[in-house]
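Hi all, long-time lurker, first post. I run a small reading group and we've been trying to get comfortable going from sequence to structure in the token notation. Rather than ask abstract questions, I figured I'd post a concrete chain and ask someone more experienced to write out its structure so we can walk through it together at our next meeting. Sequence below, copied exactly:
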Amino acid sequence: MLSSLTRSRALAVCALPIAALVAVAGFAPLPFVVAEPGMTANVLGEHRGKPVVTISGAPTRTTEGALRMTTILATGPSAEVGLGDVIDGWFRTDQAILPRESVYPAGQSDKEVERRNVKDMEESQDDATRAALSYLDEDPAKVKVTLHLADVGGPSAGLLFSLGIIDKLDGNGKGGDLTGGRSIAGTGTITADGKVGEVGGVSLKTQAAKRDGATVFLVPEGECSDARAELPEGLRLIPVTTLNGAVESLRALDTGGKVPSC
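-- Answer (accepted) --
Happy to help. Here is the structure in token form:
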């Protein structure tokens, strides 16, 4: 057994490497990104002076309310995030600390990530258009849809794009007003056959939605718990799994019918 003096020396010696590690970690970059609520855009309106949704080949209607796609703003893949940033982010509700690889593919440069995000957005827009026109029984050979949203990447606006197209078209009586004059926000990927997929950063997106005036938020059903984590007061969550279900929920919300909840 060590004497008390010997024990104190042993503890002191053992503590030196630990202190050194903590000091190094304080300055060394860590494999995380810092994310916060980003911008929102009303897909029924304009973004940077251009309509987000432009349709030709079929009659369109004047829309009311808003359908807001939501984003998160994250530090870039090559940005250095230190221990202080991580500790600060853990104690803040308006920030999230995410593993870098959950946001950016490993080994890709900023330029490569940007190109991938643009490609994902373009594919998402194509799928959103096909899903909406299929729902409306509109002929894609006759109806042309152009989607414009500058400086936003990734596929998570797909659901809101589809809803915006449906809201602007009568679509053989299946389209028309989805908002009831409300400001509706949401997130979710979309497939060409109308399936809604999960995204990320949902708790931050609900904050962005509330900040910009939304009262209802459409969330992929599997992310309900994440959406509830930091849910702003006065923002109603509606879980969705398909485009059809999202439309039906918004119709029910407007007519006082039964609306699913998280």
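A couple of things your group might point at:
Helices lie at 4-27, 83-90, 100-103, 110-136, 158-168, 202-211, 224-229, 243-255.
Confidence is low (pLDDT under 50) at residues 1-27.
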